[in-house]
């Protein structure tokens, strides 16, 4: 009898989880297809309901790292990688290691 109770409970939980997953997917797909109105245009221009228009009234603010000193969006890549040889990378790592405090060369000079 206890096995039957577990089976029913986990079946109900599985249906609730799948229902929640489908509801979330539907919500995400609707949000991705939502058209945002331009400042100054009304919500009826885009065919939005008043509820959707009230949500899109708030202008999204970009992250501060995506803005320059004057507050304008940056139009350049944020990560630029330069290729370098293995020997160059080894030399730079060795220089960093040797310049750090407590390196073995300092200990040998002291003793």
From TrEMBL:
Domain of life: Bacteria
Keywords from the named record: Membrane, Transmembrane, Transmembrane helix
Segments traversing the membrane: 6-26
InterPro entries in the cross-refs: Phage_Syn9_Gp224 (IPR021355)
One Pfam family recorded for the sequence: DUF2973
Protein name per the record: DUF2973 domain-containing protein
Organism: Allocoleopsis franciscana PCC 7113
Taxonomic path: Bacteria, Bacillati, Cyanobacteriota, Cyanophyceae, Coleofasciculales
């Amino acid at each position: 009898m206890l096995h039957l109770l577990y089976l029913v409970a986990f079946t109900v939980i599985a249906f609730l989880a799948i229902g929640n997953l489908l509801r979330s997917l539907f919500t995400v797909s609707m949000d991705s297809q939502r058209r945002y109105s331009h400042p100054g245009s009304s919500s009826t221009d885009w065919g939005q309901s008043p509820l959707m228009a009230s949500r899109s009234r708030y202008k999204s603010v970009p992250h501060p790292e995506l803005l320059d000193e004057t507050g304008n969006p940056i139009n350049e890549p944020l990560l630029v990688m330069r290729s370098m040889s293995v020997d160059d990378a080894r030399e730079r790592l060795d220089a960093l290691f040797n310049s750090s405090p407590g390196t073995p060369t300092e200990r040998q000079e002291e003793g």
